[in-house]
Every structure is written in structure tokens, then in C-alpha cells.
Predict the structure.
Amino acid sequence: MTRVLRRASLGVLVALGSCDPAPSGVAGTLRLPIINDPIFNPVIAPDLGSVMVNKVIFSALVRPDTALQPTPDLATAWEAAPDGLSWTFHLRPGVRWHDGAPFTARDVKFTFDQILDLSSGTRLRSDFAAVDGVDIVDSLTVRFRLTAPFAPLLTLLGYNAGILPEHLLRGQRLSDATAFNRTTPIGTGPFRLAQVTPGATVVLERNPHWYGAPPGLDRLIFKVVPDINAQVAQLRAGELDLVTIEPANLGSVQHQPGIAIRQVPVVQHWYVGFNTMSHLFSPPAVRRAMAYAVNREAIVAGVLKGYADLPTGTIPIALRTYHDTTLHPVPFAPDSAQALLAAAGWHRDADGKLRNAAGREFAFDLLVDKGNPTREQAALAVQQDLERIGMTVRLRTMEFAALVRDRVLPGNYEAILIWWTTPPDPDQFAFYASDQDNNHVRWRNRTADSLLLAGRRTSDVATRREIYRAFQRVERDDPPVLVLFYPREIQAATTRLRGLPALGIRDALRHSEALSLGPGT
Amino acid sequence: MTRFLLSRALHAILVLGMVSVTTFAIMHLAPGGPSVLADPKLSAAERAAIVEQLGLDAPLPVQFTRWITRAARGDLGTSFLYAAPTAQAIADRVPNTLVLAGAALLLACLIGVPTGIAAGAAPGGTLDRWALRASVAGIAVPVFWLGIMLILVFAVRLQWLPAGGITADVDGGGLVDRARHLILPASTLALASASELFRYTRAAVREGRDANWWRVARARGVPRRRLLWRHAARHALVTLCSVLSVQLPRLVGGAAITETVFSWPGMGRLGVEAALARDYPLVMGVTLVVTLGVVLAGVLSDLGQLAADPRLRRA
Amino acid sequence: MTARVVPRGLLGLVVMTAVVTIGPWLWPANPNAIDLTNIGAGLSPAHPLGTDETGRDVLSRLLGGGRVTLVVALLAMATAVTLGSLIGGIAGFRGGRVEAVLMRGVDAALAVPGLFIAICLLAFAGPGIPSVVLAIGLTTWMPTARVVRGEVARVRREPYIEAASALGATSWRILWHHVRPQVVPLLLVTSTLGVATAILTEAALSFLGIGIQPPTPSWGNMLAGAQGTLSSYPWLAVLPGLLILCAVASVNAAADALRPTPVDSSP
């Protein structure tokens, strides 16, 4: 009975919504889960939940379109100097902060002063390592000074770098601005904060003064739901509208009335990193052999239920412009692996174990962070496949924080199953160029170094594409890591949802004004 | 009475001291470190800046002295996770936990005590046997599993009750709305306590029935029913008070699981999140507040026992 | 409790222990061998209880998981009982200031929600059986300490102990010969209850993702892991859930049977 009543009242609201140009009530409210109370400050917030909310409240200079190419947002036009050492941005006139104050070049300068100043608590410094400073040209023009040409600048400006209001935050340390960070954030985005209930909900309402087309929703609510199974249950109970789920949860949402499942490739690559400082893994032939030995198709089909793409290198398929589609995934071929290993001096003994001339076994520890079923199962599959060709693989699980601090950063491991989420740009200099901070596998390849440097300094898209194609071919002969798959984000949403761009949720929320709710299908 | 309260206050300070030192030591010595630093992309310089900003670069004894001097003045520091004063983060959650734990305790008493008295009054009867079986199961069910089952049945399938949260997202907050959100989590949390209260009450009533005063009173013609509810129940109440004071920290700990399943913004979940993320100030703050609550509850329970059993007043 | 519950509880416990002990010999399938081509399969001769979401044999996981669960529970209980009787015993026997300080320690440990401390403790020994044992043991010893202290303090004041002490018996001698026999029956009860607590605590830790770490199976992590697949493979949650329920219920019934008096009014 209750259900019937609820359905009926919902129907009435939907009907009202369709004839009223500015619908009110439940009909125009979209609810998404986050797992933690967000910090409303894009410069200092470290966690995914905050990143999502901040993308809606705080606009950036540019935002990515569905091909992940930068398009205008707070900046309407830009040009780079011929030497690539400075970029000029023309800001959108007439933009107002949620409190009514005008948005100007001072806000942009202020934000980047904070990002570049380590003592502010910034989490974005390394994204903008190439930026030397920002100058105000006039009230609606800024110039970025760079220390070297830096092609990913535009992408990174649209990634996490939401612009902060100078008039509210000037003179205080960002992390000390508690009221702003927790209850009264002011941005320029299509939605503004209406109400926060700590630990429970963040209610955003339509910003009537937003500069673009009026947002299609009245409200966007982020609900704090820490448990993924509870998120799924709430989606099914109609208390959430859009949830990103793990492959293991698929069974709970498939074939449910009112729920549609979409999949979007995201800019991630999951891989097994082999420490190239170890005598086991330094020869490229051994790393190529392991790529043959691991059955990635089975992992994608079994662990990820098909919601992932087979890899060809470290540049994922989501980077459509740069991913080389002419390359084919490395096939599952244990015999080829065996042959490569034999050429590298590793032969199978009578007991089936791989041994070298000195009689040493091919044995190593494979680390994985604990608590994530997808990674744990993928690690099991890798272990099983490598043991089939005679290696001894000991699986070790660790807490993620300890894994990062004690193993990844010091490069203190033999093999590790982990992933990179990168900005939507092919620049992987920090990850795979020699001696870079994030190159924890210690991969060194001179050709790759020069290609990665050239790619970072070249703005022309066509030239860049050729550079990264060459890089992907280098990776085939000398694999820096064993890429397992490119995951797809699985978005389970109400069938009433309209206007969600085909992007990962992080990037899709830069287009929150396009979202709306229609009748269910 | 004054002496009693004074000695309890001394005890409380001792307990709080021990709790702070041990928690601080365990947490800071545990491998891993704060999750805010667990980003493999952070460069060495960024990490150093964050470590310095969080005050984690000082030696541990210095950090502890700093923390305790501030805590003594009521300043519990700034949470890493929330970038806000710890005291504020906790104060936001305390009422929610009190409501949930209170409702669960009330529910547990309402179910456990009368059933226990009735069962104890007629040992071996149908009610006694079935209630006993139910209580065995009630203690043995993992809390998270019970919670998820209740959600699947009452929220997903029947859609009678909400699956999580404390109020409706829009225009929520009315009394009925809050009560509807409270039913499932409170029942989940109450089940184990109700089962235990049932068993204690039942045992206490049975013990009372075997006592001499019961036989004498029965011989003098006092009606059984009056005897049962007036005297045996009172006897059971004394046991109950002490049982309840032991239940409290467990309710808060168990609440962490229930709160996670039902997305209930309480202290238990806050503490677990903080411990998982090694948010040092927040873990210390939550632990301190919970300890204080438990100590206070202990005093109240003692006073309750004094009130329920006049004989103890002389002791 | 009623006489009929006694053998049932103990019997259940014995049967369960026996099955998980000899089970892996009777059914030697590898509980960690995944088979990504045979996911969520139903009952078959090769997999009498089907396979889980990565194609592992459910029967062998239940058997192996039962071993892990019971071993963890027993070791955690042993840790808790040893620590508890040590602290409670010393406090009860020494009395005075030693007792005051130790019992405040017990109060302190009781006042902290054990879960927070367990989470931090778990990090010390890394994920694995020892750290879970430690985390549960070090957060559940307090009831034992209270019970033992009470009993020791009571026995200590008995006239015959005072007599023995006056006759020059050493403390250890008195403890061993006179106090121990009185305390052991009570310890039996608290330790049996401790096993039940440990099983449920491990399940709760598994729900938070910090219990026994997969791929090593435990009933707790199997139950927790099955929550995501409740709609697609509901039976994966049913069996470990039932086993936990039975184990805890029979342990509790056994404790009731061992209890000298019907109620444990220890607090």
C-alpha cells in the first residue's frame, strides 16, 4: 500500500515537473553517494568524494569534452606564446561568485599562488610543477609563466584546479579556513551549497546566476554512504540515483526495473609492476615473457565481468586521441613465455620449477593492497598463471597506506599489483621517465625518455599523437610494467537520468548543468 | 555520597590518562601512517610539507605533550580527514549516536526484560523455551549480516522503511521521518543486547523465585503476579544496572558496524573511519569522548543500583 | 540451562571441530585455486557445494575457512584468558594499590571501544592470522580479569588460605594449590564465551575489510565477501552465515552448561 502511494505521489510530481518550466520538489533532485564528508576546497582536498563535490561547486578555467579535449569554462579563449613559455587566458566577463561578488583575474592569480605554495597545504603542486607563476594582465586576462613548455597544462587546468574566491580566503592559510571548507563554500559553478548535514548529506541547489544555460536539476544531493553494498541497496530502494559500482555488485543491479547500467572507459591502467632493479626482472625479455604468461582475457572476463578493455600499453583506451588502436593486445601464449625465458637462461626442472644455470629458483613476492576484491582476485589470477610456467609467487597483502609509504615510494618490493589514475592527458613523464618521482619500478629507457619529454613539450595534437604512438611501440619491446587491463567505470543509474556525458564520474561532474531527470523508461 | 563521587572522579581521571597514553602509543607506532599521505603521486617535497603542517615531524613524546596540554584546555586539534576542529566533528555526531544507542537500549529493555520476567516465572514453558532459542540465535548473528538482511527485506523488497540515513534528503527532519529512519538500525543494534538482557533477567527472576523470601511471601498469600513484578523484577533491576554499564561501550563499538551499514552519521563510524585513516587527532578525540561517556554511565549505573537496592546504601 | 541443551551445545562444537580438522583430507580440493571459466557454478560432483564468484570450490573454502575461524577464535581466546587471568589474578591476590591500578587498567580497557584499538593493532603484525588473534585477544581480556580477580580475592579471604599463609606457605604455592582449583571452573565458562566473542569479532572485522585477509578463507570473510553478490549468488552468504550462527550458538550453550550457577553476575 505504502509503495503504491509512493509511486502515485512520484507520478504526480513527475507530471507537475513536465508542465512547469522550473520544477520543484523531488522530481528535480539527483542523489549521488560519497563515502566521506567532503572538504569544500579543490586545492587542499585529498579524497575522491571531495573532488566530486568540488567539481560541481567550483568551476575551473577549462573543462574536458567527451573526447577529453579542453573546452572553455571560466576562460573563453587562450593562446600560447610561440616559445611555449607563457600562456594567456581571457576570462569570461560577467561571472559572479555564489555570494554575488564579481569573478576576476585576481581570483585566478590567488588560486595559483596557493597551488604553488607548498605551505598552503596544496595537493596540486606537482600537477603544476612547470608553472613558475601567474600574472594579472588586466581584470579579465591572466598570463601563466612556465619554466619549460608544458603541453598538459590545459588538461590539468580542467582536471582538479577549481578556482577559489580571493575576496573570501585572502590572508589565511587554506587549511585554516574551516568555515569555508566545511559549511560555507563559495564557487562559480552551476550549483551552490544549500545545506550540509555532517556525516549525512550535502545539498546543492541550482545557481540561478550561472553564466551558462540554466541547470536541468533543482538540486544535486551528495549522500554519505560509506559501504558499497549499502549504496547498491539504496539505489535499488530509490534513495540514490547514480552509483558507480564494482563488478562484483553487478548481479544486484542488472535486470532491475528503473535501473540502467552504463560503462565508460576511464583514464586508468592497472598493472603488475616488476622492480627492474631486481636481477629477476631487469632483462626486458623476462618482462615480455610474463606478459605472454598472464591470461588477461580471463581476468577481464572473470574478475571484471567484461567491464574492462584489454591493454596494449600504459596509455589507456579512454585517451582516444592518443591510444594506438593499430596495436593488438599481447596474446595469452604460455609457450612463447617459456621460450623467451629459456633464451634468458631460465629452464624448467623436473619438478616443474624455473631455475637458472646457478640453480636459483624464479621466486618472488607479489604485493597487493588489502580489502579490494577486484585487486585481490586479479592478484590471485596472476599468481596462478605465473606458477603455471614454473615461477614461485608468494602473495602478500598490505594496508594501502603502509604499502605506499614503505614499499611503493622507496621502491622496496619485487612485484606489486597497483594502478595509476592519471589526468586525461597522455603525458606519463612522471611515471615512466628515468629517475622520476613516480617511476617506482625504476624503468630506464633512453628512447622512451626522449619521447616522453618531447610529448610533454609539444602542443600540436597531431605531432603529439605520433610521439605517443612511438612511445607505445617502445613499450612493446621493453615493457615498463605488465599492464593487466584498462577498467571501465560501471555507472548504475535511474533510467530517469538524462544528459550524463559519457565520461568517468569525475569528469562528468564538470558538466553537472547538463543533467536532468525525465520520465522513467 | 560526596566521598563516593570524589573517588569516582579520581578513578575517572586515572582511566582517562591510561586510555590516552595507550591509544596514542598504539596509533602512532602502528605501521602505515595517515591516509592523507597515502597518495603514491605525492612528491617528496609535497609529503614533507604536509607532514610539517600536520605537526607529525616532532618526536612522539613532544607530540603527545602538545596534544595533552591542548586537550586539557578543551582543544582536541584539527582532524586530518575533515580539515576542521576535531571537537566540532565529534559534536556533530554525538547526538546521532546517543539517539541510536538510546533507542536500541530502550528497545532491548522493552523486549528483553518483560520476556525475561515472564520466561523466568514459568521455567520450561512454551514461552521460555522459544524465547531461549531466539535469544541464542540473537546473540549468534553477525550484526552486519542482520543489518543488510533487514535492508534487503524492508527497504529494497517491501519498501516500507528507508535503507539508510537519519532523515529524508529533502524536507526531512520531522518526528515521523526520523522515527522511520531509526527503526531498522535500532532493531539491528538492539537484537544482541535484548537477547542478553533476556537471559540475565530470566536468570535473576529464577534465582529470586528460589529464594526464601519468595516462599515465605507466597505462604502468606501474596499474589504471585504482584510478587513477580514488584519484588522479583526489582531484584532483577539491580543486576540489570550493572549489565547495562558493561553494554554501553559495546553498544558504541557495535554501533560502528550498524552505523556503517545504515549510513548513520554517528560516532562509532567516525571512530572507525578515523582509525582506518590514521587520523590521529580524530581517533584520540573520539576515544576520549567515548571513554568519558562510559565512565559517566558507570557512575550513573552505580547510583541506579543504590536507588534500586536500599541495602547497598549502607555498604 | 536445561539438561538437554548441554550435550547439544558440546556435541555441536565437537562435530564442527572434527569436520574442519579432518575435512581437508576428505575433500582435498585447493580452497584458493580460482577457475575464471567456472564462476558461480551450482552443485556438481566436482564441486559438491558449487563455486564462488571466482570459481573457487565452496566446500573446500568452508572447510578451510572453518579451520581458520576456529583456530583464530581459540588462539584469541587463549590470549585473552591468559592475559585476563594474569592481570585479574595478580590484582586479586595482591590487593591494595596494585589491585587499584590494575583494575583501573581494566576499566580503561573496557571503556574504549575495542574496535578502534583493534584496527590500529591489526596494522602491527600485518594482515594475517597472528595480527587478528592479537587484535581480538588484546581487546577482549577484560571480563576474564574481572571474574578472576573477584574469585581470587574471595578465595584469598577464606580461613584455610589465611591458615596456610600463617603456616608459611609461599604465595605461589597458595595460588597453585588452593586458589587455582577454585578459579578454573569459572575460567572455563569465560573462555568458552570468549570463543563465541572471537568468532563474531572476526566476522565484524572482515566486514570492515580488516579481518582475515582473502584469499585465506574464514567464515567471517566469506560472509562479508558474499554481501556484494547477494542477488546473483545468494547461497554464498547462506552457508558461512549458518555456520557462524551454529558455532556461536553451540559455544554459548556449552558455556551455559559449564556455568556453576545459572547467572554470571561478574560485573
Remarks:
- Residues 58-94 of chain C form the longest helix (37 residues).
- Confidence is low (pLDDT under 50) at residues 1-5, 261-267 of chain C.
- The two ends of chain C are 21 Å apart (CA to CA).
